[in-house]
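Lay summary. Proteins are chains of building blocks that fold into shapes, and those shapes determine what they do. In this project we predict the shape from the chain. Here is one chain we studied, written as its sequence of building blocks.
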Amino acid sequence: MISMKRPLTSFITEIAGFVESLRGSIRARVRIFLIFSVLVLTYLLIFFRRFLLPAAGWRWRKIVFRFWARASAAVLGMRITVRGTPPESPYVIISNHLSYVDIIALATQLDAVFIAKREVEEWPFLGSVIKAFDCIFVDRDNARDAIRVNREIEEAFEGRKGVLFFPEGTSSAGSGILPFNAALFRSAADRLYPVHFVTIFYRTPREETPASRSVCWWGDMEFMPHLKDLLRMRTFKARFVFGDRPIRAGQRKDLARQLWEAAQAQFVPVS
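And here is the predicted shape, written in a compact code that computers can read:
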């Protein structure tokens, strides 16, 4: 069920302050206006489903989520190419993690319940949207919270939904794939769910800052300055490679290791 805990007025205040900080960049200001417009329309569609089409449920959520992701990607100048075939629901799929825009990029291809660290709830613009679309938030500082999240993975899979998470646990500069944390693989291992994988790669035009610094968001980079620079960029490429087969294993650490090896084998480093 879609949650609407955060009022739309908070978006208005948030975006108004951000626009003020973008003086001198017409492209960035136009993009913020368009992102805000997409957000407003997205929330109107959510309300429309809740009050006028209550029976639509998950089908309507998929339509609206896909609209939000594709419209946002277009506004950001994200050009997407895909190799391989996304899985059909129900599924569990994992991805390497490079940036906050991973969620937008992946949502253009996958109708999935995303699992994200709890801090994502506080991200400007993006946090409120993915919370509204049934994202499962995990407290990585609390080892026992993985038990709850694994239970929710099972419920989503048995409800014939897709589930996506980032087992690296944090984003990176894209020189390689970080070791996978095995905690969220427990339900897939215990029930021998097939786990799919996809790898993401970003590239910027030659005249722009390399993607490892301008698109990838990692280390001690501050969110707002990074977002401002991203909005000023003319365009960038996002490339997906879906694995050719899912992987099963009865032990979560074995499953994590095999998936890491398969993902690393097809990963293209970001420069």
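What the prediction tells us: The radius of gyration is 18 Å.
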